Amino acid sequence: MQEHTAHLGAEQQTARDAMVIRHGFEHALAAGDADVIRWEACPRCACWGLFWQTPTMRVACANSKCVDAKGRPSVWTLAQLAEHRAAAQTARSRTAT
Known about the structure:
The protein is mainly alpha-helical. The protein has helices at about 10-30, 35-40, 80-95, and strands at about 50-55, 60, 75. Strands 1-2-3 form a three-stranded antiparallel sheet. The longest helix is centred in the first third of the chain and has 21 residues, at about 10-30. It starts with 9 loop residues before the first helix and ends with a helix.
């Protein structure tokens, strides 16, 4: 896929990478591996306290100080988590020396 999309702009390539990451999350969770979420840092507070909530199908941060503007615990969709990771990878690759 990367070979066939190498001509795309940076933003579109980041979106492509996010899609691949999200699919990886989905497949791991479907196989019963919720630990895949724990390897990701929280997009809001950067701590390593993320966990998968099966009933809501969302990722939540266990850090009690990591809340949104309304004081609710931070939660993320798999797509949001994947977009955050893809953007971080793109930023790292651009600044690598």
